[in-house]
Amino acid sequence: MTEVRLSIVPADRAGIAEIGGAAASGVRTRGAEETGAPSWKSLAVCANGDPDALFVTGAAQRDAARLCGGCPVKTECLAEALDNQVEYGVWGGMTERQRRALLKRCPDVTSWRDLLEEARLAGTEHLAG
C-alpha cells in the first residue's frame, strides 16, 4: 500500500520545516494547495507567529508546547511530525523527546495521520452518543 502525505510544505511556511523530515528535501505531494482547500498549516495558531519560538531547547519547549493547547489543527500538526519523523521543534503540542518516546513505543504505526484521525472521530462519536 502506498502512503500519501498531504501538504508537506506550503510555500509561505517553507522556513519552518526546513530543519527536519521529508520537508527538508523539498518533497511536495498532492495536498490542499492543489485542491483549492486551505492548508491546515494556514489555520494553525502559530501560523503568523515567529517560527523560531517552536524550535527551542530544554524547558523552553514546554512553554512553546502551551501555544498548541487551543490550536484547531493540533492533530494534523502532530501527525505531520510523526509521519515524517521530524526531529526538531514542538509540533502538535509535543516536544522532541515526547515524540521520540511515542515513536519508540509504537514502531508499527504506518500512518499517524490515519491513526490520530480515527481516534479523533471515535472521541467525537463517544461524545455524541
Automatic annotation (TrEMBL):
This is Transcriptional regulator WhiB. It is found in: Cytoplasm. PROSITE patterns: 4FE4S_WBL. GO terms for cellular component: cytoplasm. The gene is whiB. [4Fe-4S] cluster binds at C46, C68, C71, C77. The keyword DNA damage does not apply. InterPro entries: 4FE4S_WBL, Whib. Binds 1 [4Fe-4S] cluster per subunit. Following nitrosylation of the [4Fe-4S] cluster binds 1 [4Fe-8(NO)] cluster per subunit.
